[in-house]
């Protein structure tokens, strides 16, 4: 399983360049920018949270929030304890511009360095990742070590029983499950159904979505 997206390239200045363009487009003619994996993916996350998380004050963190569209949709559903963090400062500037009068908190930070943001000093009952783990996995230097650090650090952000939602287009479901359950820090809660396709007699899907619980 693989995908091609400007935001899913290895973590480097190209992210900033991409979001600088997105921010310019928003300031110039109000274009909100690209949504990772499309609005179907956003709606999939929101539907699950509305179904499973009834308390509107539940702390929710979006890792690699980009333009913040997931959090904007959750705010529309009445959730009020929302935080977005992204490695790219232009992405955060765009998200803040789109939020305007909303109550969503946005900060720049790097999950691989928990000292990089105050966002990482607290815990969240729900952590959302729609592409960040993929981007880390594509790092040209020390990708395995960075993936292990991701699992270790994201676990520190979630209380026991809290949820981690992963959307990936670079790993299969079985690979993601193996990565996150290998050290017993997480257990699989459920796999979210996504649209499948058939080609040459084989069945596949463009993304996988899984929900883990912190142990």
UniProtKB/TrEMBL annotation:
EC number(s) per entry: 2.1.1.-
Pfam families named in the record: Methyltransf_31
GO molecular function: protein-lysine N-methyltransferase activity
A cellular-component GO term for this protein: cytoplasm
Entry keyword annotation includes tRNA-binding: no
Alphabetically ordered keywords of this record: Cytoplasm, Methyltransferase, S-adenosyl-L-methionine, Transferase
Cellular compartments annotated: Cytoplasm
Broad enzyme group: transferase
Keyword Cytoplasm attributed: yes
Residues of the Methyltransferase domain: 55-185
PANTHER family: EEF1A LYSINE METHYLTRANSFERASE 2, PROTEIN-LYSINE N-METHYLTRANSFERASE METTL10
Function comment: S-adenosyl-L-methionine-dependent protein-lysine N-methyltransferase that methylates elongation factor 1-alpha.
HAMAP family membership: Methyltr_EFM4
Listed name of the protein: Protein-lysine N-methyltransferase EB796_018337
The organism of origin for this protein: Bugula neritina
């Amino acid at each position: 399983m693989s995908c091609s997206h400007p935001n899913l390239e290895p973590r480097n200045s190209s992210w900033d360049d991409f979001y600088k363009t997105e921010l310019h487009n928003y300031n110039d003619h109000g274009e909100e920018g690209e949504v990772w994996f499309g609005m179907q993916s956003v709606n999939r996350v929101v539907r699950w949270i509305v179904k499973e998380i009834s308390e509107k004050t539940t702390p929710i963190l979006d890792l690699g929030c980009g333009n913040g569209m997931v959090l904007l949709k959750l705010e529309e559903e009445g959730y009020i304890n929302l935080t977005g963090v992204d490695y790219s400062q232009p992405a955060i500037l765009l998200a803040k511009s789109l939020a305007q009068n909303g109550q969503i908190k946005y900060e720049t930070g790097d999950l691989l360095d928990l000292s990089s943001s105050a966002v990482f000093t607290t815990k969240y009952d729900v952590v959302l990742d729609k592409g960040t783990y993929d981007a880390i996995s594509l790092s040209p230097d020390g990708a395995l070590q960075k993936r292990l650090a991701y699992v270790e650090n994201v676990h520190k952000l979630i209380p026991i029983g809290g949820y981690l939602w992963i959307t990936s287009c670079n790993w299969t479901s079985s690979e993601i499950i193996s990565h996150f359950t290998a050290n017993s820090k997480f257990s699989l809660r459920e796999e979210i159904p996504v649209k499948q396709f058939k080609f040459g007699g084989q069945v596949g899907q463009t993304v996988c979505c899984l929900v883990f619980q912190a142990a």
